[in-house]
């Protein structure tokens, strides 16, 4: 698992890469524009080119992810908001592809209680039209998929279950142009536990069964300020929240997630992830590996039947990044 961090783009994109490098992040995530305003930040081809070459040369940052604007709502019934959302997401994707990003993470939006089935077709059509509108830069190797993030479950948010994300992927049939981002805090807040070997394995199995083994593009690694099942999106520093190191460790060290980028979106001291937050994440991973190792004899002795499941997961999730 490569441990990364969301950092501020600040004055220019290359600054974000430098910040990520400084704090020891192996993966960097940025907003392609201010996340709570519609106005896109215009980056010239020279700025994008400079970012791509700096990223290619950086000795420790291995991948870039972008996060889409929070205002976007693909499930809205308001035609004007839908139109703005489509334009904004397309602008986000153009920048992400220009940066050579490995994924653009998206909160799909909220149907405000009208129901998932009623908005599914609109969500899919909008995603497909956005994918059509963002040209794939010939200078970048990746097509930069849109990674749909699981939601904490508040107010009719789309993606509160893996089934909802799977239904979007299936109907869109866009192959690897769409994927999934798994946020540990949202998972916890939506009422899915992973604080044991069996529970963490059940989450990974469920993910493989629903969205499919190759759809997972990245993990958002966050502890939670709110209790289990609280349905609110409130991130805490690793080890300082209600999830804790042990439960995070069980999931992080799952063999099927070994090659996943795991991006911190924690508050730090108020200004985002710091070097010590990345250290805490690496400690959680080390502790998780120790938990898995310590559990080996029990698996061989008592739970022989889980063997084949674990083998399948190892072959599957995380191999596609
Ligand atoms: Zn997010
Ligand atoms: Zn997230």
- Please give the CATH architecture: Alpha-Beta Barrel
Mean pLDDT: 91
Separation of the first and last Cα atoms: 12 Å
Give the amount of beta strand, in percent.
5-15%
Helix content: 40-55%
Number of strands: 10
Question: Would you tell me which CATH topology applies?
Answer: TIM Barrel
Tell me the series of helices and strands, N- to C-terminal. Answer: EHEHEHEHEHEHHEEEHEHH
Shape: globular
Number of helices: 10
Radius of gyration: 19 Å
CATH class wording? Alpha Beta
Main pleated sheet: 8 strands, parallel, barrel
Count of distinct structural domains: 1
Kindly describe this structure:
With 321 residues, this protein is α/β, with parallel strands linked by helices. It has a single domain (2-315), classed as Divalent-metal-dependent TIM barrel enzymes (TIM Barrel, Alpha-Beta Barrel). Helix content is 43%, strand content 13%. The chain is built from 10 helices and 10 strands. It has helices spanning 13-22, 45-57, 79-98, 116-133, 162-172, 184-189, 197-210, 244-252, 275-301, 307-315; strands spanning 2-6, 27-31, 63-67, 103-106, 146-149, 178-183, 216-221, 223-224, 235-236, 261-264. The strands form 2 sheets. An 8-stranded parallel beta barrel has the order 1-2-3-4-5-6-7-10, surrounded by 4 helices. Strand 4 (103-106), helix 4 (116-133) and strand 5 (146-149) form a beta-alpha-beta unit. Helix 3 (79-98) crosses helix 4 (116-133), helix 4 (116-133) crosses helix 5 (162-172) and helix 8 (244-252) crosses helix 9. The longest helix is centred in the last third of the chain and has 27 residues, at 275-301. The radius of gyration is 19 Å and the shape is globular.
């Amino acid at each position: 698992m490569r441990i990364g961090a969301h950092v501020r783009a600040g004055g220019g994109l290359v600054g974000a890469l430098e910040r990520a490098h400084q704090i020891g992040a192996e993966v960097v995530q940025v907003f392609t524009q201010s996340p709570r305003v519609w106005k896109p930040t215009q980056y010239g081809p020279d700025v994008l080119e400079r970012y791509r070459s700096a990223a290619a040369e950086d000795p420790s940052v291995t991948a870039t992810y972008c996060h889409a604007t929070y205002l976007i709502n693909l499930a809205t019934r308001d035609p004007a908001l839908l139109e703005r959302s489509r334009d904004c997401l397309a602008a986000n994707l153009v920048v992400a592809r220009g940066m050579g990003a490995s994924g653009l993470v998206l909160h799909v939006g909220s149907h405000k209680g009208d129901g998932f089935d009623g908005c599914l077709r609109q969500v899919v059509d909008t995603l497909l039209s956005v994918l059509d509108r963002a040209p794939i830069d010939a200078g970048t190797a990746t097509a930069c998929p849109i990674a749909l993030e699981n939601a904490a479950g508040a107010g009719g948010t789309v993606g509160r279950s893996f089934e909802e994300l799977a239904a979007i992927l299936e109907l869109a049939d866009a192959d690897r142009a769409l994927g999934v981002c798994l946020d540990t805090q949202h998972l916890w807040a939506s009422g899915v536990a992973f604080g044991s070997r069996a529970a963490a394995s059940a989450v990974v199995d469920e993910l493989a069964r629903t969205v499919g083994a190759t759809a997972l593009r990245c993990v958002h690694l966050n502890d939670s300020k709110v209790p289990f099942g609280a349905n609110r999106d409130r991130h805490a520093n690793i080890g300082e929240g209600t999830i804790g190191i042990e439960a995070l460790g069980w999931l992080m060290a799952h063999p099927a997630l070994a090659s996943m980028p795991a991006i911190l979106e924690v508050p730090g001291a108020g200004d985002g992830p710091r070097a010590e937050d990345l250290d805490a994440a690496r400690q959680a991973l080390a502790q998780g590996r120790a938990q898995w190792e310590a559990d080996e004899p029990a698996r061989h002795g008592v739970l022989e039947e889980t063997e084949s499941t674990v083998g399948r997961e190892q072959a599957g999730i995380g191999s596609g990044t």
